[in-house]
Amino acid sequence: MKITPLRFVGGALLAALLPALSGCSWLLGEDNEYQRAYSVKALEVPPDLELPPKDTTMELPPTASQQGDTSRVAAAARGGVLPDASGFRLRSSGERSWLEVETEPDAVWEGVRRFLRANSIPVERGDAKLGLVETGWVEVKVEPDNAVDRFFDTVLGWFSGSGLRERYRIQLVRGEVPGTTLVQVTHYLQEEVLLGSADSTEGTTWVTRPSDPARETEMLGRIMRYLSGVRGPGGVGARLVVDDQGQPRIELETGRDVAWTRLGEALEELGIDVEGKDAGAGYYDIAYAFEDAAEGFLHKLFFWLDERAGEAVPFRLQVEERSEGAAVRLLDRSGASVAAAQARHVLERLLPALEGGG
User: Which residue ranges make up each domain of the chain?
Assistant: First the structure.
């Protein structure tokens, strides 16, 4: 079993905390984002895109093929998980892939930003004029492969970390055909390694690893499905829209009854508490906790020190019939509108689960 720095430090911390935890039967540990503060340089420019001179001196990280490993790219191509959607075409040349969208760059830019928010991917830098989005570092989650790792992952969430983190650079450029946009994604990967020897650890550092073109292709597919509303396995076509009053809603390409059923499955999938429901009236009463993703793990570990942490707010998710499908709105329990920011937060979290592949 590979001993990552996180597991190495985690084991020692667990031993120190066992007396304090002996009277507590459960802990919070579901946050999947890698929320550590690092000073990061601007990401590199892909070789086939043109940007202002100040950005063209940077180099791309080594690709998998440069390290003699193309199996992941071939596996992704064989998977056939990225069918073209109407108005979207996935192109490739060698290991490079990009997405052609029959929409102006400004509209694609907003859609990409919504996609990142909906998937809880932090944004480190965004420049609408350059059509550039650089994400923050996010931990690469891996499925625990043994009982010990599964225990740590279930109980404490972060002890069985992969020791890997990744980020993405998303570049939008105007296509040669008027009214089209090209979307290209560059993947960056780092591994946390121990400094010093096993007997005398001097801390950790992050080492750049080869980028994975398969991850770039996967991200392009996720963006395409989000922007086009193409559903994944078990999902429905869905998109987030905002009405004239600034209130968001999710529009689904299915009937009200199917939408109500799929919404229930999405709530269960995300672990959102359902306190009441009525299929005839088309609603779910939920209790939703707005948690601060920036909180450190010690605050999360000793959650009982803050009685307000994770306090659940009652809401109603209302499924409404539309001429071309159904819509989902977030309301209060009386059926009145809630703050647009609250509604957007909850609906953007629901959207990928409704799509079934976001």
Answer: 5-228, 238-355
